[in-house]
């Protein structure tokens, strides 16, 4: 009976902890071309992982495009303990940033849901490049 009362108390309080294999970064690939469809080599591509409830950046993986204008990123998963209580779990979302000197910087601003495109194509327009924005409250690590 005491075990039942303890279990019910924990369930009602929302303090149930459970293991979950969380995707911190999906497997993703990007193709970067110019306005004529020619691949852009050596563009810096950042895949930025952020999470709710606070929307803070968790990690950023950076790669350069190949001669074919492609960059690939591996899936990263991690076992975590989460709970049902408020702010007891993280929901991850991802954004792209592409920088190449002589071209306008391309950034996405997806905030979650199913907006992220793991197979993404970018057409860079000639113009001034700027660095990818840095998250001032970044709590993760640069991968």
Short précis:
By secondary structure, the chain is mainly beta. 8% of the residues lie in helices and 44% in strands. Strand 7 (91-99) and strand 8 (106-107) form a beta hairpin.
Give the class from helix and strand content and strand pairing. Answer: mainly beta
- The arrangement of helices and strands along the chain is HEEEEEEEEEE
CATH architecture grouping? Sandwich
Radius of gyration: 20 Å
* Biggest sheet details: 5 strands, mixed
**Average pLDDT score:** 83
> Taking strands numbered 1, 2, ... along the chain, how are they ordered across the largest sheet?
8-7-3-4-10
Keywords for this structure?
143 residues, mainly beta, Immunoglobulin-like, 3-stranded mixed beta sheet
Write the layout of secondary structure elements.
Layout: H1 2-13, E1 17-25, E2 28-33, E3 44-52, E4 56-64, E5 70-73, E6 76-83, E7 91-99, E8 106-107, E9 119-123, E10 141-142
Parallel strand pairs: 2-9, 4-10
Antiparallel strand pairs: 1-6, 2-5, 3-4, 3-7, 7-8
């Amino acid at each position: 009976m005491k075990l039942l009362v303890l279990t019910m108390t924990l369930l009602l309080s929302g303090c149930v902890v459970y293991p979950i294999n969380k995707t911190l970064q999906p497997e993703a690939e990007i193709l970067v071309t110019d306005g004529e469809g020619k691949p852009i080599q050596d563009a810096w591509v950042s895949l930025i992982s952020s999470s709710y409830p606070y929307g803070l950046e968790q990690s950023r993986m950076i790669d350069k495009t190949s001669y074919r204008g492609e960059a690939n990123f591996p899936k990263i998963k991690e076992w975590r303990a989460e709970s049902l209580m408020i702010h007891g779990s993280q929901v991850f979302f991802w954004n792209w940033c592409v920088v190449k000197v002589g071209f306008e910087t391309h950034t996405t601003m997806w905030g979650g849901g199913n907006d992220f495109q793991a197979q993404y194509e970018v057409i860079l327009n000639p113009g001034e490049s700027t660095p990818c924005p840095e998250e001032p409250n970044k709590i993760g690590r640069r991968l």
